[in-house]
Predict the structure of Ribosomal RNA large subunit methyltransferase H.
Amino acid sequence: MKISLLCIGKTDDKFIQEGIDKYLKRLKHYVSFTIGILPDVKNVKSMSEAQQMDKEGELFFKNLNNTDYVVLLDEKGKEFRSIEFSEYLEQKMVGSVQHVVFLIGGPYGFAPKVKERSNASMSLSKLTFSHQMVRLFFVEQVYRAFSIMKGEPYHHE
C-alpha cells in the first residue's frame, strides 16, 4: 500500500519542516509515503470562499486517480484514537487498497465536489491547528500507527 498526503501551499516554518522530515525518514521503513505540495491559489482576494475552494478542488483532482482511496482531513470527520487509526490503516492494507490519499484543504475547507469524491473524512482533533502543524501531526500519527502495527515501543498504552 502507498500513502500520500496532498496539501495546499508550502510549509514556511523551518522547525515544522524539520519535524516532518524526521518522521518521513522513519516512515520509509514501513510504507511508501509521499507528501504532495500543491501551489496556493492565486488572486484569492478577488474570489469568494466558494470560488477559492473550487480552485483548490481542481488542483486536488489533477493529482488524484480514479482508484485512489481519498480521505479528507476535516474538522467534522471521524475522530480516532491512535490505536484505532492504526487498525484503520491496517484494514486498508488487508483490504487491498493500493493507494490511500489524505487531503488537507485550504482555509475554508473542501469544495462540495471534493467531498463527493472522497471515500471518508477524519479529524485529528476538535481543536483548530494551522495547516502546517496538521502536516506534522498527521505524519507523526502515521508513523505511530505503523509502530503500533509492528508492536514497537513508540506508543505507550
Summary: Residues 2-150 form a domain with the Alpha/beta knot fold (CATH 3.40.1280.10). Residues 131-149 form the longest helix (19 residues). The chain has one domain: 2-150. The mean pLDDT is 94.
